[in-house]
Amino acid sequence: MTKCRWTWMLLLGVVLFGFGVKIQVLKNGYKPFLYNFTTNACEYLKTNRNPLVRFFHEMIADYSNLNHSCPYNHDIIVEKLPITFVNHRVSVVLPVPEGDYLVHSVYMIRGKPRLELKVFCRIF
């Protein structure tokens, strides 16, 4: 599969939306690697000031409808994200060593976890 589609249905009028991302590498179990952060997505979408969040947002921005500040009154969709584009971002823009990784993200609405997404991948 070279493209993917994610749809996340939201309650109407989401104004407090946040997420946390933790990246781990497989070395005798999954161990922390590089990033472990939590942010207020509504604040980021308003100011666009966090460079770390911007790096990850730019990965999906052209392939999603996550393109305006809160409130969100519609589903969030990420679709037709080419794996070649992601590969370029993690091998050329931000060179990541070869290995097995887990990108663990938790998405929160009004401070309560609503979606937990674990993406297992191999960089070679």
Total E-strand runs: 6
Which structural category do the helix and sheet elements fall into?
Answer: alpha+beta
Count of distinct structural domains: 1
Order of helices and strands: EEEHHEHEE
Count of helical regions:
3
The rounded Rg comes to: 15 Å
Average pLDDT, all residues: 86
Q: Uncertain segments of ≥5 residues (pLDDT<50)?
A: none
Strand content: 35-45%
Instruction: Report on the biggest sheet.
Output: 4 strands, antiparallel
Describe this structure in words.
The model has no long low-confidence stretch (mean pLDDT 86). This protein has one domain. The strands form two sheets. It has a four-stranded antiparallel sheet. The protein has a two-stranded antiparallel sheet with strand order 1-4. The protein is an alpha+beta fold. It contains three helices and six strands.
